[in-house]
Design a protein that fits this description.
242 residues, alpha/beta, Rossmann fold, 8-stranded mixed sheet
């Protein structure tokens, strides 16, 4: 199953991606694909060294179109070891591409590569691919969703988060992709407000992820990820929806 995790910047997409990976690896082989060209610390939260990017494996940003055309199917676990990292509990981490230097240009080659990779990545029936997408809705314009099975939208306690979720729901319905909404960073004082705001837009959440100070603390330190009670909430979402 291929899952794309979307939402506004700061909503907690990477945290939810990590939590999903940690829970799903108990069920089968799990791949966490980092398609956010700006994210830097995702592998460190898994206790991993940062591997080189798939874009570089294919010849660099200027050659990704040519490089990916050589592959009809791709098994990420079969990439050379310098392009993937693996945790002891069975999570494979890989990154599409990263902006590295001033004047390098836009991230368009990496958006193209994300789309083409998702169409080509092969999984067995007991494997999961989790795609930590870039913030906002640009991936919609690039058609990245073409190769996924489900879209999961992370919504934080902001009006912008709900507005972006509304747009993603509309487009997912238009292109025929199943979609789930997750309310993140939920505290008792905002839960009813978030639910009411969603209802006013004709939306309903599939899960509530409680605010966990452990996530804030581990994100600040930039080391191994600690999620506390949020792990329980993600586990419940998986059992009910995946």
């Amino acid at each position: 199953m291929k899952l794309l995790i979307g939402g506004k910047g700061g909503a907690g997409k990477s945290a939810i991606s990590l939590l999903l990976a940690k829970e799903l690896c108990k069920k089968g082989n799990t791949i966490l694909l980092d398609s956010d060209e700006s994210n830097r610390l995702l592998p460190k939260t898994l206790g991993l060294e940062t591997p080189d990017t798939i874009a570089n494996y294919l010849g660099g940003r200027a050659k990704v179109r040519e490089g990916i055309s050589d592959y009809e199917k791709i098994n990420l676990n079969e990439l050379p070891p310098e392009y993937i990292s693996k945790t002891e509990d069975g999570i494979t981490y890989a990154a599409v591409g990263k902006i590295e230097e001033y004047g390098e240009g836009c991230a368009c080659p990496y958006g193209f590569l994300s789309k083409e990779l998702l169409k080509r990545i092969t999984l067995t029936t007991d494997e999961y691919l989790i795609v930590d997408a870039e913030a906002g809705i640009e991936h919609l314009g690039r058609g990245v969703e073409e190769g996924i099975d489900k879209l999961i939208v992370v919504i934080d306690p902001t009006a912008e988060g709900i507005e972006i979720a509304k747009k993603l729901v509309s487009e997912a319905e238009r292109i025929g992709k199943p979609i789930h909404l997750i309310l993140n960073k939920v505290t008792p004082d905002v839960e009813s407000v978030m639910k009411s705001k969603l209802k006013s837009e004709g939306l309903k959440a599939d899960a509530l992820i409680r605010y966990a100070p452990e996530i804030f603390q581990s994100s600040l330190m930039g080391g191994l990820f600690n999620a506390g009670k949020a792990s329980e909430d993600v586990s419940g979402f998986i059992e009910a929806n995946l």
